[in-house]
Fold:
Amino acid sequence: MKKETTNPTVVRGVKELDRLSNLYYKSRDEKYLEEWYQLTKKLAALLPQVSQGG
Structure:
């Protein structure tokens, strides 16, 4: 069984999402919320599609 490695770009992106989230909840500044949504969209494009099969 091959172990899948995580894309380092995704890891950095998730850390940045966490940072933006913390800044938003501390300040309630909408600019952090908007940045968070934009980065989420960019990271979602990098992730492989997961099938919902059962």
In short: The CA atoms of residues 3 and 48 lie 15 Å apart. Helices lie at 8-27, 30-46. Residues 8-27 form the longest helix (20 residues). The mean pLDDT is 84.
